[in-house]
Give the backbone structure.
Amino acid sequence: MTEFFNLVKDKIQLSEKSRQAFLSVMRNEEYPKGHILVKPGSVCHSLFFVEKGLTRTFWPH
């Protein structure tokens, strides 16, 4: 999660209280190659920050 805060510190200023609020709802997860984060037809209620690796996005036609 350090990578996330390093990235945003150049864009916005976060107070320590705001940083702690973010940390209270963030969690670090790892997924294997090929894992589907959001299944087709479902609604995503999460925000993902990729620290390492790549993602691929598909849009319906």
